Fold each of these.
Amino acid sequence: MKITIAVDIMGGDNPASELALGAVSAARMFAADGLELILVATPEAAKTLPELPANVSVRTAEGVVEMTDDPGIVMKDKKDSTLVLACNLCKEGIADAVVSAGNTGALFTAASLIIRRIKGVRRAALGSVIPLESPFVLLDCGANLDATPEVLLLYAKMGAIYAENVLGVENPRVALLNNGTESHKGTPLYSEAYKLLSAEESLNFVGNCEGKAVPFGACDVLVCDGFTGNIALKLIEGMGKFMSKSIKDIFHATTVAKAAGAMTFRHTKKLKKKLDPAEYGGAPFLGLKKPVIKAHGSSDAHSFFSAIKQALMYCQGGTIEKITEGLAKKTEETEE
Amino acid sequence: MKITIAVDIMGGDNPASELALGAVSAARMFAADGLELILVATPEAAKTLPELPANVSVRTAEGVVEMTDDPGIVMKDKKDSTLVLACNLCKEGIADAVVSAGNTGALFTAASLIIRRIKGVRRAALGSVIPLESPFVLLDCGANLDATPEVLLLYAKMGAIYAENVLGVENPRVALLNNGTESHKGTPLYSEAYKLLSAEESLNFVGNCEGKAVPFGACDVLVCDGFTGNIALKLIEGMGKFMSKSIKDIFHATTVAKAAGAMTFRHTKKLKKKLDPAEYGGAPFLGLKKPVIKAHGSSDAHSFFSAIKQALMYCQGGTIEKITEGLAKKTEETEE
């Protein structure tokens, strides 16, 4: 089966040529799986690309959405941008999925308006796969700042389907991020959501999860509103960076410490991977009609490669179909 | 000047005798500062105490508030408990401050009802001093789950006074915990609070702070609602534990790694301190008429010592007076 992914190589912190390297690696690695890539670049950037394998083509657009652009203006002022073109390729059926390292809000806005939400999905969410002790999907990481109990239930279902199909977790454990483990804990949003998630038989709901349990593999899907999720995601990222820096400082403190650093190099490298969300390549939008993966803004070739791999698995897993069939209908019933 | 602190040595995870050790150390260390301690224990626990210095006395109550007790029942069913007695000693003017390692919610409820809030302070908050790159006060850590923009402003003022008087930070930098740095970011609660904090001349408001900047000394006072703050505090704690465990694992992986661990022991120990909120001993309640410090539930003698030291500094700093004089009046004007 052929799977075509539109890859926006502009708009990240690194130059298009760096991201193209990751894309080409992915194209070569997964050629046998039927992967085809359409790199979307400006005409100038397109000239800097290396020789491309047969399953990689290039499309161009004049504009680039900058990190600082207000997402609200993208569909007006940046219609002729690589990001919007990548979404349009998906809408027109030329591509099956989109990957971009650009402006998160702009990607969400463009993808929501162009690719559109699955029928019955009131809110699409931004998930993030976080490694730590064992990888889990955190959602919503900021697509929508507010939520209702029904929306948290929707996130839970979409997250569980994603964890099962893309991360390969059987019967994923779903938890609510909360300020205590008891069922009545949290704001009314969370205590009400607790009731809905408990009552939903299709979910393996394991209850509330406190922040201190998060790093230790307490669940496979961690559900919260976008404000809380964004703060949690960035705190985890910040603490990971703090830790990596602190370890580096330890191993640079003295000559003896430098030797110790060399002695444990492989182990600390492994730990660094556990602390780095870029290891999983990107954050999936859930609830849209096609897979859209937001690669980390600071993606290098390696993490951009991972993001494309994740998009491929998102396509292969039948995740969209499962969300569309199972959940969309159910959500409509609940809400309308 | 004599300063008397009522110390509830029951209700923590460790036995009263362990906490008493920390209390006795503090009493000896700060005898010259006029510190006097009243240890509050059950009659049974009182019998297990070692010989006490002259500036330590003992009072007893029959009951103990357990960690699992619902805070709502404390003032009904546990009136004759060590926690309630400690608060009563404060109310009656026998003690100047309270320290307890017991049930946080129960301590907050009892202290709010017995010691009461400063006039004009609509909500008392639970602060927490977090070490990391440079120590900062995070508040509210869960005393109240919801907030208004005015309440966040109140937290900001109280937190700044605490940071200045107890942590010794001159002109403390105050920030809002938010999902982006721009002024319009966050839920309406946060974008409105941003306006109030910017307009408040007595504050050194440095804007919004994202989770990824939190560990790196971005501010001295970090303000948020109690739900978000509790999740953030526990995430920081959990990530700290995850890292300590990971470093331990690295240094136990092989014989070579064990040698490396020995070579960097002092440095990793220093890092562990940075990751451990117990290092600062306890979490201050802010907005009550007397200093109340919640020591960590898992406090050992060392961290309980630090909590008592913090209570002493809370008393010495004139923090309560400054909150009462400056801010309480202002808050009344705004709200009534």
Amino acid sequence: MFKPDKELIKEFAKLAIVNGVNVQSGQPLVINAPVEAYELVRECVKVAYQQGCEKVTVNYNDDVKTRLDYENMSENELANVPNWQIERKKYEIEKATCYLHIIGEDPDLLAGIDPVKIKASSLARMKAMQPYQYYTMNNIGQWSIIAYPNLAWAKKVFPNKSDDDALQALWDAILYTSRVELDKTLDNWDKHNKEIHDHSKIMNDYNFKSLHFKNSIGTDLTVGLIKDHIWEGGYDISKGEFPCRFNPNIPTEELFTMPDRYHIDGKVVSTKPLSYNGVIISQFSLTFKDGQIVDYDALDNKEVLKNLIEMDKGTKSLGEVALISYDSPISNSGILFYDTLFDENASCHLAIGACYPTNVKGGTDLTADELYELGGNDSMEHVDFMFGSNDMSIVGLTYDDKEVEVFKNGNFII
Amino acid sequence: MFKPDKELIKEFAKLAIVNGVNVQSGQPLVINAPVEAYELVRECVKVAYQQGCEKVTVNYNDDVKTRLDYENMSENELANVPNWQIERKKYEIEKATCYLHIIGEDPDLLAGIDPVKIKASSLARMKAMQPYQYYTMNNIGQWSIIAYPNLAWAKKVFPNKSDDDALQALWDAILYTSRVELDKTLDNWDKHNKEIHDHSKIMNDYNFKSLHFKNSIGTDLTVGLIKDHIWEGGYDISKGEFPCRFNPNIPTEELFTMPDRYHIDGKVVSTKPLSYNGVIISQFSLTFKDGQIVDYDALDNKEVLKNLIEMDKGTKSLGEVALISYDSPISNSGILFYDTLFDENASCHLAIGACYPTNVKGGTDLTADELYELGGNDSMEHVDFMFGSNDMSIVGLTYDDKEVEVFKNGNFII
């Protein structure tokens, strides 16, 4: 039976609480976690209180129950967000809460469920929570995402292994890519954070006007970048009542910034399947003109892709462009995780939907309308998809019209 | 490793959902459960949707986290009930929700925690929820309690067994006392419910004015009974939007009714330890005069008993008197469960605190004040404690001053 090593669980919990959310003395913490992860959660709670956390609240979720909900509940009931859930969110924000999200989702969770039901449910939830989205998107409070294996996910990633072996293999892969090593984890992350920040600085100094992506499978896309954009990556700094460093994503390899929603042109072809709302969309392409998606195609679940693109005014454009060398640890592991937290860090990616206000100078001081005018995209959604390949070339164009090679054969060369 | 049999889990889930809460088509269900019970919860969710449940919500709790909360949180924060929790309760009642509580608590959970902290926390929670207590106390919506083992509880009950053997033994005992047998469980309960109701009828026909309890270890207590009291037991009938039969307690053996809070006199000596707010109070006695506790003593944790008795105006009197033959299945198992759900069904018991309005004719139509005037006790608390013994005698006094032997040598004889 799969029984994760207790010392490694403790080490992972320390990473999640100290480097991940970095909960501050007197600050409350909310942990969202799958029910199978309760032993990891207990260790996280222990470490959080050792750090002086005021109160830990844990909300457990369960994939198996979620699937039963979608199979049995009416569309109306699925789309019903009770007011107390909004009151809870308000309360958490008032108390300057930080959030740890432990994820682990069956990539095929909602396969076969009526897309109309899925859309109704996710749209209602996003609409209800939109007024509070700024809290995370602007890093007012710290937040962090880590992963824990479950059987359905493990069997999707390792279909030829036994149940226990698949769980163990996925757990090993999570720890390896999350740089967890007994007594070395925090040092590993200090070093890794520094490397990413050094790289960001080089990109920020170039201050490119646009990037041109091209490879042999059909991507030929120019992505304009917002003036005074900021390349971010690794740790971030929270801006609310408890300002401090935190690592939103564990693992993370990316540098990312804000596209200019007026200037995106050409075609992009995905290189990894996208698991969206529990359904896998594979081999899809998007064509842009003047920043808007004007055409799209997919081998599977095109209907779900359509729902995403037609969700709101911002789901026809991009909110994030991220660069990752093809020669990265997650990519080198050769594992397709069917999960964005991992797969986005194996490959250059774009995000349909909202931008991060932190990706432009002064962005967090702007209103949503001001940021939108400037060219930052606005949406209830933010969905990453992967398009990096081993032959990707990226050429940056500077404001004085110089061309600079950024990527060659899938890797950074500057 | 303890791995409960899947077929028995399914059978138990069917009992909990069909006979326990008996969720109705179109009705929502809330399940509160310990995190270790997630496989049982999944089966309960499945059965609930098969019965036409509108929506299942699951709230997981975790003893290990609760202990960490008490060790680390301030008294103020422990006593803080955010408003959204009250909004949630209101919403659930508006929607005519039924509740399944899966319990399984370490009897020593809060041993060594400052009783002041425990009192502050439980008092605040009870005060906040008191306006909604009527919903369960009057059986407006169905509710049911079942149990699931956890390691700390299992080791308390079976201290000499290995971890896995203790868990298995407690699970076996839960299923045995809950009358769970493959494909026979629902029939077992139909028969059991009928037997209890037949017995209630006999007691109701006598309509005793008072009961006199006496045994060799010091109990010598007269408990007046409310005029037109009703002896209840086994299934109940809900009175709200979805009226139906349900079994509040699984297991259950008791017949219970409403004491007259003006007329309780004499001394009662406990025969089993009481686990209250995670602390065990053992070998205690209470002395009553004119319905009020005027003296008390305990071998251990007298301070916690004091907190209970001084909680509010109603914790100095009784809200329930319950009769169980000493020769009952739970008693015969010889197991001390350290949990009221089981131990109360092994022995005659009394409850400090609120009465059940259903225990008097027309009681659910009275206001709280009217019921209190009549002699029904009112409190935020309702805490059962056991005083049955193998030599207990009970004599009933009728309104025409006839004495009738009800119990002899610990067992019913009428």
